[in-house]
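Blackboard transcription, Thursday session:
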Amino acid sequence: MELTLWTYEGPPHVGAMRIASSMKDVHYVLHAPQGDTYADLLFTMIERRGQRPPVTYTTFQARDLGGDTAELVKKNIKEAVERFKPKTLLVGESCTAELIQDQPGALAKGMGYDMPIVNLELPAYSKKENWGASETFYQLIRTLLKDKVSSSEKINPLRWKELGRRPKVNILGPSLLGFRCRDDVIEIQRILSEQGIDTNVVAPLGASPNDIKRLIDAEVNICLYQEIAETSCEWLKRNFGMEYTNTIPIGIKNTIEFINEVHKKLDLPLTNKKELENKSKLPWYSKSVDSNYLTGKRVFIFGDGTHAIAAAKIAKEELGFEVVGLGTYSREMARQVRATAKDLNVEALITNNYLEVEDAMKKAAPELVLGTQMERHSAKRLGIPCSVISTPMHVQDVPARYSPQMGWEGANVIFDDWVHPLMMGLEEHLIDMFKHDFEFIDGHQSHLGHTATNTKDFLNSDEKKEKNSKEGIIWTESGRAELTKVPFFVRGKVKTNTEKYAILRGIPEISDETLYDAKAYFS
Amino acid sequence: MSKVEFNKETGPREVFCGLTSIVWLHRRMPDAFFLVVGSRTCAHLIQSAAGVMIFAEPRFGTAILEEKDLAGLADAHEELDRVVNDLIARRPEIKTLFLVGSCPSEVIKLDLATVAEKLNKRFLGQVRFVNYSGSGIETTFTQGEDGALKALIPLMESSNEEKLLLVGTLANNVEDRFKKIFRNLGISNIESFPPRQSTELPKIGKNTKVLLTQPYLSDTVRDLKHRGCEIISAPFPLGIEGSTEWFLAAAKAFKISELKVHEIISPLINRAKLALKSHKEILKGKRLFLLPESQLEISLARFLHNECEMDLIEVGTPYLNKDLMKEEINLLPDNTKIVEGQHVEKQLDRVRESNPDLVVCGMGLANPLEAEGISTKWSIEMVFSPIHGIDQAADLAGLFSKPLRRNQILTSKTLVTH
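(Written on the board underneath:)
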């Protein structure tokens, strides 16, 4: 048993949902109790998507357990197929369904449909979200391409020359709930296009099962997010001989290295090599005298594997920071993170436990933290500025503006985001919901701590009655007590309004009733 | 009884599970801690639903079951012991620890009652342990509170003192208002359940008169009855009408004259009517569809129709206790369509067909409906916001008028939304 107050990754079936929701013409029947439907809000609220995820939950109840839950699974599969008419069906189970062993995937396969059915077995008690996403993507590709494995020749990365066309690549790994994936894809496609390289398929984001079947029309795979795409890239290499890239184009140096790697694999000469270094403002901004204060700034990095490794390299080589801590929650990426940490002479922190991360952060005493939303909170408590570089996704990580992390524009975004220490303040949508809670009322300290305004001067006055406004209005005990219950961030306004109302009505003493009268008057 | 049309629906549902109620319960009782014994999904659920990230140290957590815990139940009990020890060492201020069952712990039949019993002996005088289930196979959303309160009842001492017991979690300021009004009516002995401190449980007995503040407490009510408490039958204190009837029902139980009640609350009603006016202008004649989520739907429908003049298309509720809801149902307009349970797809088909002006729904459905051009209101706001009482009637109406007002503003600027 693992005690946790906070988790960096969801369960593996949420990873599967990320793949299903990223794609077109795919539907996922998930054998799960009703509580598991919360996962929809990750997509509709956090990603602000205007569509529900293509997921049908069986939502079995305790009373179903005595009966035939297998029939319930079949009924839901039938309804989902009729209603949504998917081109490929994913079938799986969440943690609770795994225990009752209905084997929904096998049931689905026995129902006589002629569409491809992917049976997802995602062990919920040992694996997590990124693994689930990776496994789902891999199983989907395998299912849709397995017919072609024996008939296909190995793909020669140079065949584009014989075919007399521009080279084509697939971009693999971007998905919903991935950190800035939407914009990374645009940026990378643009960069490749400038170099004379076409994009064959982007997957899973925006791809359909038909697109998956077309993956082998490309010469090379771009493995953009290793957490999600590496297993698939490896399978495509083993079965079709497709080469894939290892460099993640985050930061100037990595973007250049990435372009070189793609060219090398395709035996394609660089068309505009000289221009590359001037494509982003980061190198000059970093060199400009204004950036002198960045020299040797101590930075602590924690996040998913892909972004943490990239951040470490940029911090050291492109911004002149000193990396004093590096870690990840992605156990699948532990080896690579350890190697990067070793190069930087720090010990890698591989953990799920945010308190361990906070402790390490405290010990390292950095001047800047690059982490997840959790580290932003830990850093705030420690009074350290922080920039968010990694999932888990938060509504703030889905900005309206174009904001990639990869490529030239990504480097610009990173320069701004890291250098302007984030002043996150109040997350309004949450605060609004919780504004009546005692955390925001005197005597209790939230993470806002010392920054929260204090009204001691007015509320804790020794005098029972105090003339506290120019007009001689008096706040009675009950009025004062009621005012303390108003959240601090609107208290000033309530106080002013109430006094205005009292003056208007010629009321000399403000009681709790006056406060409510004023509230009603102004509402 | 009005001619209300009752329907039952079964099929895939889209409702939070009972674990979610931890989010407001832990804020009500700051000396309590809620430990979910469940899976990574449970941890992820309360994290996602609660947005716990804005708080430094939430008073809830999850003991995540791992493969080895499933292998042998004896081991799971030992593991739970270890986790509880760690937790109490880290949070010595905890006075009551709720062990909260989840879907997986229910399915593997983890006996949390026995665990709680053992822990109670070990931590005697320091921490009290209680257990209940918030699992999605047994409970929806607000039913979690019912389970938590029911679990506390055996700890409540007996007393024959006459008192008014307000049952159901309220915002503190609302509770204060209610108590003040009751005192003005002449009822001086008033307590709340749950209390603000988990250790300050009210004493109950045959002279305890229970007034429910929330409609989702069926099991709690049953157990309070078993303890001899008298349940005052009333609608729920949402809006002017509901609150007035609620005060009147309490007054009747305490043999206080109706006249006295009207004398005390009519100034409140007058100012609430004034405050309601601007919201009513927006809501009047608008067509409302309530999807099932919080069990507050019937009371909300009654308020929005009777006081804000909205038209009701369909009133969904995840679960209907006709007995507890009797007074509410009596106040509904004729031919109100109530649908208990859910088939989310069919229900959404009906939403689209009926083209409502406003839909009350869960968070997972809101943005997709907005993208289809349908204004929505999140159910979860009703359990987080102080909406009870006459003084809050306008605030309650405001929750519904705001999305409509917003829609008007944005449409007038010809904003393209999709």
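Lecturer's comment: Residues 103 and 321 of chain B are 23 Å apart (CA to CA).
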